[in-house]
Structures are given as structure tokens and as C-alpha cells.
Design brief:
about 190 residues; alpha+beta; Arc Repressor Mutant, subunit A; ADP-ribosylation fold; three-stranded antiparallel beta sheet; 6 helices; 9 strands; about 35% helix; transferase; Probable RNA 2'-phosphotransferase; RNA_2'-PTrans_N
């Protein structure tokens, strides 16, 4: 296999894992525990029985090389680090955020964000980045990125709860518009 094919396969396996560990485990007969964990052997068997064979070596490679550290392995279990649309309790303790966090989006969402703030939509929490560069990459997945600054320090002082996932993504239930700073015209 060429390097390009290897990379395409890695992306395909990562997307497959995201779909089934974050959103639709039941599609391949998986039952995640309350923390979102599943036995690795169970996952590999379920994927194979549904026509998508993943070797343990491929799985370990995807977990180790994913730049966003989307997945966590603990002993014989695996889970998605965050981003679930299904009910899971990640067990993350409350954390004190830095003064500012960032959120990447695209211009077409700005009017709604100005009116309603950041909402989790189909996820459990709003995802915030610790730096502008990461937020820019997140926003770029949907088009030309716009990076919003979140006054996380003020939110925390006002009683909003934050958690930080294993891969450094900051999570909160929502960000009211008053805590957002929008970029000026370019």
C-alpha cells in the first residue's frame, strides 16, 4: 500500500470509529457503558461482522496518530474523548478555564450566534479551543473560518461550569452572547 492509501485508510477508520463511538453505536450492535467505553475486542468484532474489518494494529495507529486525540484507550477499553450526540457521562471534573477560549465557525452562523450565543446543537456541550490556531482549523472544516473569542474567565466567575477533555478541548453547556467577542471587518 502506498503512503497516500495508508493515510486514506487511517482517515476512513477514524471516521468509522467517530460515527460508532460518538453517535450510532447501535448501528453495529455496540452498547457503550455510561462513560462511553466499550471493550476493544467487542468493537473490532462488531465492525468485522458489519463488513468493516479493523485490525488492532490499525486501531492503535489511529488512536496514536490522530492529531486531535479523538479517542482514548484505557486498559482493554476505548472511547471517544468528546463530541458525543448520545448520552454518556465522561466523568470529567469541573476545571478553571484560561481567561479566553476560542470557537471556530463560519460566517453563515454568525447572526444566530449573535442572537443566541453558542449552543451545543446535537452534542452535549459546546466545544472550545485553547488557542486561535486550533479554532481556525475547526472552523475551516465548514468553509472560511471565523474565530470567536470567549471570555471564559468572566463566564467562570459568573458560575458557568467548564470541563476539559483528555485531548484539551474545553467543554461547557453554552456560551451566552454577552461573553463572545466577534472579529471586526477584514
Amino acid at each position: 500500500m502506498t503512503e497516500g492509501n495508508d493515510e486514506r485508510r487511517t482517515v476512513k477508520v477514524s471516521k468509522y470509529l467517530s460515527k460508532h463511538l460518538r453517535h450510532q453505536p447501535e448501528r453495529i450492535g455496540l452498547a457503550l457503558d455510561e462513560g462511553g467505553w466499550v471493550e476493544i475486542d467487542t468493537l473490532l468484532a462488531a465492525a468485522a461482522s458489519h463488513g468493516f474489518r479493523i485490525t488492532r494494529t490499525e486501531l492503535d495507529h489511529v488512536v496514536a496518530t490522530n492529531d486531535k486525540r479523538r479517542f482514548a484507550i484505557e486498559g482493554t477499553r476505548i472511547r471517544a474523548s468528546q463530541g458525543h450526540s448520545i448520552a454518556v457521562e465522561l466523568g470529567l471534573p469541573p476545571a478553571t478555564p484560561p481567561a479566553y477560549l476560542y470557537h471556530g465557525t463560519v460566517a453563515r452562523h454568525l447572526d444566530a450566534i449573535r442572537a443566541e450565543g453558542l449552543r451545543p446543537m446535537n452534542r452535549h456541550d459546546v466545544h472550545l479551543s485553547p488557542d486561535r490556531e486550533t479554532a481556525t482549523r475547526v472552523g475551516a472544516r465548514r468553509g472560511r473560518p471565523v474565530v470567536l473569542t470567549v471570555d471564559a474567565g468572566a463566564m467562570h466567575r459568573d458560575g458557568h461550569v467548564f470541563h476539559v477533555s483528555a485531548n484539551g478541548v474545553w467543554l461547557t453547556q453554552g456560551v451566552p452572547p454577552r461573553y463572545l467577542r466577534f472579529p471586526g471587518p477584514h
